[in-house]
Design goal:
The chain has 215 residues and is of the alpha/beta class. Helix content is 47%, strand content 12%. The protein has a six-stranded parallel beta sheet, with helices on both faces. The radius of gyration is 17 Å and the shape is globular.
């Protein structure tokens, strides 16, 4: 068998974490929390971690616990100049173009931001579907319901997809949803079945995985 869909995370997956883009978004999230919730700077990290553990995203926690308007959060925290951090990536485009399966993006970021990142990287045309935090009712990865919602919209079963993400919890969430999942990066988190250190290694890994499935 071969996969019907490749499902990619966006931030620090389709672009390198060294770009600093996600760190800039994180700084804006910290500022938003301090401003809106009057949380001291020394306690913001713990609050974000607690929300992430319980709800999957900072935004999900703020909507559930603090009645924050998600549009206010998104408009403020993702107000970044993406072109200051990213540029077209022809090597990534070549890799994506060489992978003949259908492709989708599944991100905990908002749609407008996701679309702009893909356009700046010049890879938007490779993706048939883009799923964002609003699609998942603000409770994204690693909530299992979000994976199942994506699979339902794609009209496929988990075993027909391969999911690539840089966050161990999201990869483990994909596996729990029945999706073969790949960790991008050097984390030593236990329970991860497939790993790559660079997206350029993805074609070789897919060949290896599909070979084992056939065997």
């Amino acid at each position: 068998m071969s996969y019907q869909y490749l499902i990619f995370d966006l931030d620090n997956t389709l672009y390198p974490k060294e770009s600093g883009l996600l760190k800039q978004v994180d700084r804006r999230i910290d500022h938003f929390i301090g401003l809106k919730l009057k949380v001291p700077a020394t306690k913001i990290s713990k609050l974000r971690y607690d929300y992430w553990k319980k709800y999957g995203t900072t935004l999900g926690g703020m909507v559930a616990c603090d009645q924050i308007d998600p549009n206010d959060y998104i408009n403020d925290t993702y107000n970044v100049e993406i072109r200051d951090f990213l540029k077209p990536d022809p090597l990534l485009a070549k890799v994506l173009g060489g992978l003949k399966m259908k492709k989708a993006v599944f991100s905990n970021s908002p749609l407008n931001y996701v679309e702009e990142v893909l356009e700046v990287l010049q890879i938007r045309d490779f993706f048939e579907k883009v799923y964002d935090i609003r699609f998942c009712d603000y409770f994204g990865k690693p909530n299992l319901s979000s994976y199942f919602k994506v699979l339902s919209d794609l009209k496929v079963e988990g075993k027909e997809c391969l999911f690539i993400d840089d966050t161990p919890a999201n990869v483990l969430g994909g596996e729990a949803a029945g999706i073969d999942s790949v960790l991008l990066g050097d984390s030593l988190e236990e329970g991860i079945k497939w790993r790559i250190s660079d997206l350029m290694d993805l074609p070789a890994l897919i060949t290896k995985i599909e070979g084992q499935l056939i065997a």
